[in-house]
Specification:
Layout (H helix, E strand, L loop, with lengths): L3 E6 L2 E6 L10 H16 L5 E6 L3 E3 L10 H13 L4 E5 L2 E3 L1 H8 L2 E4 L4 E3 L13 H4 L5 H10 L2 E3 H6 L5 E2 L3 H13 L3 H34 L2 H11 L9
Parallel strand pairs: 2-3, 3-5, 4-6, 5-7, 6-8, 7-10
Antiparallel strand pairs: 1-2, 8-9
Helix pairs in contact: 1-2, 2-8
Length: 244
Amino acid sequence: MTLVGVTHAHGVATLTLDSPENRNALSAPLVQDLTDALTRCGKDPAVRAVVLTHTGTTFSAGADLTRPPDPAAFVALLRQVVELPQPVLARITGHVRAGGLGLVGACDLAAAGPGATFAFTEVRIGVAPAVISMPLLPRLDPRAAARYYLTGERFDAAEAARIGLLTAASDDVDEALAPLLDGLRRSSPQALAETKRLLTAIVLETFDRDTAALTALSARLFASAEAREGMTAFLERRDPAWVL
């Protein structure tokens, strides 16, 4: 059973994260299924664009704390989205947390509806938004990144658009995506691939420079005593010991 649904229409492949029982958390199986689906899209000349969306009320809750993906596999997935020849668009109608924001940041374009909320919750469980910083920090307003990384505050779609996380925030996410997809359908595959390469060059430089260090940082933090306490507190629905 796949955790990522795939449909095709008018040159657009829609990949749907379909694990609503755990809020589309980034488990090892989901990461593998999404990697496989993206690989097929990248090789398909009939695909002009890829839309990444979700079932349920959450786009992605971040890493699955019960079945976490291998850090290297998750980094490879983020890089795959950035390097895919076709533009990848995030379609968000629900909540996005922690590692899920990494997926949004890796996408070329992103739109969200009024029910979407966002939060970098890593600091609240004793870790840091390490590897997801590679696609995110080159795109985000620096002052906003500092605020939301450090506080773990929740923010809405309008704020996400203001700080550079989203292309558009709209009362109707499909209406917002329609002109973007129309433009992509009218563009040549060669032109889209090369233009995307220009746009993602700085992001890929960040991956080349920082992958090893940030993967090691993430592993060290997740293995720490504070992270164990933070994750246990989260699963037990209580405050961790450090909360004053």
